[in-house]
Specification:
Helix content is 66%, strand content 9%. By secondary structure, it is mainly alpha-helical. Strands 1-2 form a two-stranded antiparallel sheet. A two-stranded antiparallel ribbon has the order 3-4. It is elongated and about 75 Å long.
Length: 112
Amino acid sequence: MYIGEAAKKTGLSIKAIRFYEAQGLIEPPTRLGRYRTYTVQDLELLLLIKEATELGVALSQLKGVISYRNGEIDWENIKVFLTEIRAQLIEQRTDIERKINSLDACYAQIKP
């Protein structure tokens, strides 16, 4: 599929897709004449990048994680990375809950 269709299917702008290519996050797509063509694998990776950035993952972190083996995305490496991100989010949630409990205790001590 062409870049316009890839943009529609991923919800990314054409400019964002080209930027991710320029940053080396996705391999340069094959070309049909002068047009870029994208595979289902490319779409899956673009969706992963989109979702990860929405979670606050920096593109520089993703660049170090996304790799290819024999032309295929190394999803196992990405799974390990996502597991680490999940652990970090759980840790942040625990810290926020602790802070809320502390705030509640302070609030309860204030006499009206």
